[in-house]
Design a protein that fits this description.
The chain is 50% helix and 15% strand. The protein is an alpha/beta fold.
């Protein structure tokens, strides 16, 4: 994105192609002497068998400034855990594989449940949460970064640009969010961001009126990107959503806890592609259909917490306004794609807009039926207050798994 536009709500740090990734990496090596940088990789075992993760490791192996890599491994049995330890062993940095399904980690999970602090069912949110807890328990990182394990177009420069604003002591930022274009196989991708989030935020401002929170979300070029980093100070009080609203939930936490001037978005890639979820029109419990409901609920909950009153009438108006806004934006996306030699299937995208419109009212009904729902995993500050030994015991559990199965 060759521009230098600032939206006035948060800092946008562009890639103007006037320096090199190597120069930034050398600076980070210097910063990392005093500000150690850790990376979290939430992974399913199946991703070890995909095309993306081996290439990601090839790139990470060249990164000189990383202090530690924490891999959260989900849906793995004992043999698969052993395989994962060998798979990640080629990383030259200090690294650890947390086997979330091990008997020891299940005991930690049960202990949390006994305290009324159940982190919920397996999923990306819980995986990230345990990795954050482990990193905090180590007490030696100043910057914590996260990205997904299915990025087909991954380059080490993505991580370098993501963490640079936080590691540089002369910058004021506490949270860094990545953005990029979503293009692959000759198509314009990023369907949920383009067809759900952007028109939904426009529609909400029309239906419920101006809100600073909505302005904040609209300021992000790609609010659903899975790449973000934080300085460690606010992390213990970070509320991780337990559903697929993770990315929007983290931005909502930034809005609640941080000054806008301490949040930035960084252009980390010219082009980005990863595994694409099915739309799942017939099953609202999975795929993009489930994702759209969870994202909508996350936004509704945050607005309600700030005093917005919702009703069935508001959700009906929101559905109609969203539908018109989404179709208007689709015209813009179609023109943009065509001018850049890309394809958009108008029929499929309009069907997706129709599905998302239905799901906005479903999410609204779920919210109205259960407004007291607790969607967040407890913060690590609360866990430590309830059970001061748990974080240390989790470190020991991970180490004992290594000793027994490694």
């Amino acid at each position: 994105m060759a521009d230098f536009h600032q939206n006035g709500n948060l800092a946008t740090l562009h890639n103007l192609r006037t320096t090199t990734p190597e120069a930034l990496s050398r600076e980070l090596e210097s910063f990392a002497q005093n500000r150690k940088i850790s990376l979290i990789l939430p992974s399913l075992f199946s991703e070890l068998e995909g095309e993306a993760l081996p290439k990601i490791l090839d790139e990470l192996a060249t990164v000189p400034y990383l202090h530690r890599i924490v891999i959260g491994l989900d849906r793995a049995d004992e043999d698969q855990y052993r395989h994962a330890m060998k798979f990640f062993s080629r990383l030259p940095q200090e690294h650890v594989v947390i086997w979330n399904d091990s008997p020891r980690m299940k005991a930690i999970h049960q202990r949390l449940g006994d305290q009324g602090l159940d982190p919920g069912e397996p999923g990306k949110g819980r995986n990230v949460w345990f990795c954050i807890g482990y990193t905090l328990a180590c007490k030696d990182s100043s910057v914590i970064a996260l990205h997904d394990c299915d990025i087909i177009t991954y380059k080490a420069e993505m991580l370098t640009r993501l963490v640079y604003p936080l590691a540089n002591p002369n910058f004021p930022y506490q949270l860094s969010k990545g953005f990029y274009a979503r293009v692959g196989d000759g198509k314009l991708n990023g369907r949920v961001s383009r067809l759900l989030v952007s028109p939904l935020l426009i529609a909400m401002q029309k239906v419920i009126g101006p809100r600073d929170y909505l302005d904040f979300l609209r300021a992000f070029r790609y609010p659903l990107s899975g790449e973000f980093a934080m300085r460690v100070a606010p992390v213990p009080d970070l509320r991780i959503p337990s559903d697929w609203g993770l990315e929007v939930g983290v931005l909502s936490e930034a809005w609640r806890n941080l000054a806008p001037k301490s949040v930035c978005q960084v252009e980390i890639s010219d082009n980005y592609d990863h595994k694409h979820q099915p739309v799942s029109e017939e099953d609202a419990t999975t795929g993009l259909s489930r994702m759209s409901i969870d994202i909508a609920k996350s936004i509704y909950r945050k607005l309600a917490a700030d005093g917005t009153v919702f009703s069935e009438e508001i959700f009906r108006s929101l559905k109609a306004t969203y539908y018109r806004s989404a179709l208007d934006l689709l015209e813009c996306y179609t023109s943009d794609a065509r001018m850049n030699g890309l394809q958009i299937d108008r029929h499929k995208e309009e069907k997706m807009i129709e599905l998302f419109a239905q799901n906005l009212t479903k999410a609204g009904q779920i919210f109205l039926d259960n407004p007291a729902e607790q969607p967040f995993i407890p913060t690590w500050s609360r866990v430590h207050a309830a059970d001061p030994a748990l974080m240390t015991d989790m470190l020991r559990a991970v180490a004992d798994d290594y000793d027994e199965y490694g």
